[in-house]
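User: Design a sequence. Structure:
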């Protein structure tokens, strides 16, 4: 795998246009729920989001590669160096060319992108979280930081929006954690806080074995209720944004809420198989929300 793209990438000088096209292809190939939300954005913001997604994909691909830990750490260190170079006007390859252009246009702080790298680094060595506070530190880096970056690109420069953007990212990540319990356990990872497993009388061994019982249902119901609370907080961000940007976070929030609905409808038995939304369902939801927001904005303008 190359360090500047999902399938090898290139190095050297590339135009911003071709760099953005490269990032769009990465997003189209790899993004699932995200791509259907991104298409609702005006083109300049959509291209910037593609660059951010491609950067996140680059980091995740390094973590997922079958490489020695030391080599992964080294590669992520190089990514951090390339990121610093992008903020200083030195770019190499399409992902960082597009990213440098995007963060310059939308005044994205480097710290948010550094936080993403730090979150991926945590995944290399941390396989258990004792408390929700510990888990939140991880989720902030891999999800809330992304929400803060996206909010800048959406046009949300008001600092009061930042906690809401962070909460929406956290809600989405908590939903991912619930949905992916079997896959994560198969890789030796448990993201549900261990003190909460103990509180509900469920063990690590039962989780790894995929044991579904009343204690697991109670544990998952608690996780779902907490995620719902963060969704409620995070979705307050949507009406605060410029109307052309509102559909993207609204679609993301709705898509992930729909996944949470599916988990609840299945009685919290995530061991039966991964909850998925069809491409048609995602597209119809995205178009419906975009039209609803557009019509509402036109009505307000006419009034």
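Assistant: Done.
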């Amino acid at each position: 795998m190359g360090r500047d793209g999902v399938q090898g990438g290139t190095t050297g000088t590339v135009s911003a246009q071709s760099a953005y096209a490269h990032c769009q292809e990465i997003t189209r190939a790899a993004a699932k729920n995200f791509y259907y939300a991104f298409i609702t954005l005006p083109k300049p913001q959509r291209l910037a989001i593609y660059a951010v997604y491609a950067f996140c994909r680059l980091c995740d691909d390094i973590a997922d590669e079958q490489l020695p830990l030391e080599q992964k750490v080294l590669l992520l260190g190089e990514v951090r160096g390339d990121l610093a170079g992008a903020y200083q006007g030195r770019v190499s390859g399409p992902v960082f060319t597009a990213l440098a252009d995007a963060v310059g246009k939308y005044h994205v702080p480097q710290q948010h992108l550094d936080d993403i790298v730090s979150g991926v680094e945590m995944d290399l060595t941390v396989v258990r979280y004792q408390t929700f506070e510990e888990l939140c530190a991880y989720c902030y880096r891999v999800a809330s930081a992304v929400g803060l970056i996206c909010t800048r690109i959406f046009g949300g420069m008001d600092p009061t929006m930042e906690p809401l953007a962070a909460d929406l990212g956290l809600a989405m990540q908590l939903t991912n954690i619930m949905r992916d319990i079997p896959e994560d356990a198969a890789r030796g990872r448990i993201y549900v806080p261990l003190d909460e497993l103990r509180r509900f009388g469920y063990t690590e061994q039962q989780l790894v074995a995929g044991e579904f019982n009343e204690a697991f249902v109670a544990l998952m119901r608690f996780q779902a209720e907490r995620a719902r609370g963060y969704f409620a907080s995070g979705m307050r961000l949507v009406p605060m944004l410029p109307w052309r940007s509102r559909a993207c976070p609204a679609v993301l929030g709705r898509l992930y809420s729909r996944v949470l609905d599916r988990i609840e409808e299945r009685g919290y038995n995530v061991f039966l198989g991964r909850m998925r939304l069809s491409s048609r369902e995602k597209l119809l939801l995205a178009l419906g929300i975009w039209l609803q927001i557009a019509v509402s904005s036109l009505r307000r303008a006419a009034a």
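The chain is about 70% helix and 0% strand. Residues 117 and 277 are 29 Å apart (CA to CA).
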